[in-house]
Amino acid sequence: MHPASTPSASPLVPPGAPVRLAVREIRKTFPGVIANDRVTLDVRRGEVHALLGENGAGKTTLMNILYGIYQPDAGEIVIDGREVRVRSPRDAIAHGVGMVPQHFLLVRRHTVAENVALGLSGTRFLLPVRGVEMQINAFADRYGLRVDPHAAIWQLSISEQQRVEILKALLRGAEILILDEPTSVLTPQEAMQLFGVLRRMKEEGKSVIFITHKLDEVLAAADRVTVMRKGRVIDTVPVGMASKPQLARMMVGHDVDFQLPARHPGTGAPALVVEDLWVQGDRGLPVVRGVSFVLHRQEILGIAGVAGNGQRELVEALTGLRRVERGRVTVLDRDVSRWSPRTMSKMGVAHIPEERIRMGIVPPMSVTENAILRRYEEPPFSRGPLMDYVSATRFAQQLIVEYSIQTPSPRTPARLLSGGNIQKLILARELSHRPDLIIAAHPTYGLDVSTTDRIHRLLLQRRDDGAAVLLVSEDLDEIRALADRIGVMYGGELVAVVPAGTDRETVGLLMAGQRV
Amino acid sequence: MGVVDWILGVLVRGMALGTPLLWGALGEIYAERAGVVNLGVEGMMILGAFFAFAAAQLTGHPGLGLLAAALIGGMAALLHAFVSVTLRANQFVSGLALSMLGLGLAGLLGRGWEGFPLSNPLPERSILPPLGALLAVAIWALLYHTRWGIILRTVGESPAAADAMGIDVALVRYLAVVFGGMLAGVAGGFLSVAYRPSWTEGMTGGIGWIVVALAIFASWDPLRAIGAALLFGTLFHLSFRLQAWIPPEPLQMMPFAFTILVLAIAARWGARAWRAPEALGLPYLRGER
Ligand SMILES: Nc1ncnc2c1ncn2[C@@H]1O[C@H](COP(=O)(O)OP(=O)(O)O)[C@@H](O)[C@H]1O
Ligand SMILES: [Mg+2]
After folding, report:
1. For residues B149 and B139, what is the distance between their CA atoms, to the nearest angstrom?
2. What ipTM, to 2 d.p.?
3. Where are the domains of chain B?
4. Which GO cellular component term is one of those annotated (chain B) (predicted)?
5. CATH code for the domain defined by A19-96+175-250
6. Using only C-alpha atoms, what is the Rg of chain B?
7. Which of A259, A516, B127, B139 has the smallest set of CB atoms within 10 Å of its CB?
């Protein structure tokens, strides 16, 4: 079931419900950004309050202030009618605030029980885990958050890890629970389950702050929604009175109508052939297990899946960054299974890496230097041992205009650009030489709507020009919008390749490891 | 002399030298489990050796000597904790500086005592070797079966997770580093009041460095540290015993060469078993990204 088709699943909180938490005029700046600008909102008892905003809107910053991780520059926090100072997470916990951060704070090598027992007051000194296990099981039943207390965190799936984070907060008596983008790591079905858990918490009178940048989820799970944009609160409205286009406009700041060009019919010759590929993960275990597929020119093959199902290792193997244990990778009729990233790139394979700052650019080097990173040792950028910075700068300037990269100058260190502009710089570099094969991992992760749209158009255009595109993404909507075929990875296997029009539900089930 | 006697003799002496190795290694493991590397072991040990000697000589009680060693070790470690936890400086540089500081300071203070034998030493096979083994078991139980153990290990694996649960990361790290330093001090004290009851400048002779390697070799497990310390103690002692047949220089290199070998093996093949605490060596600042 598509969340959009469900009306607000929970009854509205009576407007008279008492305010449990209020923030007034909160301001927080980081060097060069006003992350929170006079933010004011209130959360009632027994309410699921959505905080909607694009990436960089300041949602996480506000929650980190509520949880005592950041100190605000100005403003106040009022809990149950009293102004409080939250100097540390310890203070936040004492005031009944719990948080499930976007990037979980769990000790991977410890068990679930150890993670929960940590700092839980009232656990005994000796053998603390025993009593905690029973508590975990009791809470797990009450909220439908089943998880094995003895399991080590690294053995759990991402959604199970999320349950542990929620349990941690609940067991510590959280009355106000903050969930930062909880659905970004879940399949659509798992997200629906999570909404069920939120409903149960609500029934017990708890308050939930639910952060997201997806409109459908707001409509499916929240009672009221506060929209943030560029550090400011735009408005708070009851969900029953909000429409999707209206929320989108508030979130983005202008009308949203990003209709992508129509699908191009027909495909070309095979560009990438993968046969029975096996790849090891960082722990030395096989994490890509016998993957086979063919990708043609003029085709976008989307790889969907929940994070950690072998997608990263697959991409690294295909770009020469990780050793191929078994199987064969053929690019444009040449066996490249043992090739280095350098030769792959020389052959015309473009790589848009998952970690754009760590792997996509050299942060302290200038935009110009980053722009020629692929071809710095060729003319016209260098002659013999000498660099020709004049032509390099000319080239960079050309890319800056063509890809509308916002930078003070080509000499600016790349690290000073915003995430979206760093990504545009990477795309410019990788796509400018007309690659035959493009391997893009999460190309729009964390970017705003207009940059995302621009990148989507670039990929579609290259496809129409004859390139083959492998698009790995956790964003099912992105894959459904761009891909000609959708492959789903689960547990290191490519469990299915389905046509583009396949409904969300089916793909979601495949992502959860169910055969359909 | 029969072969059996010879071997037994070597083992007994190996255990004697294994004792300071064990105490030192337990201290280092304890601190590293909280995420702080302390390369100042050599310095804390030599300070412990000198203060133990001086206190034992002046009071006439070797036990008071060991107490003084624990105190000075803890104080030296406090300095390291301040620099690496509060000031968040590079832990490795701070530890190295502490080693040099300790060696220099002990040398300076010990000028007048150089070569002095201790009048009332502790017997080498005193309570310290069994106490060391007992301590290892106690620290193991503390780490794995108590609330404090979970807290300490979490601080070493993920200080951010500990902080988010309301735990004072800096406090835990201070306590761990200081306790570790106290054990290192006792390890040094054992050298000057029991193993070689006297004071000589530089009498730790590099044992502190082996202690650091032992923490890794034992894969941060206090129980494994017992065997590891015994092994290295024996090796160390062998390098004295074999001097009758082999020139001393290569022999003295033996424990260190073996250390390098062991670490190389651990790095190459033991990657999974030898997993260091994840936040080892990393200063923590809330909200930093
Ligand atoms: N610790 C930090 N240091 C510097 N800048 C930060 C920090 N945290 C957030 N920011 C900046 O503040 C802005 C808001 O970020 P954030 O609150 O994470 O947004 P959201 O969660 O809505 O995506 C962004 O421009 C981000 O780069
Ligand atoms: Mg965020």
Report:
1. 9
2. 0.88
3. 18-205
4. plasma membrane
5. 3.40.50.300
6. 19
7. A259
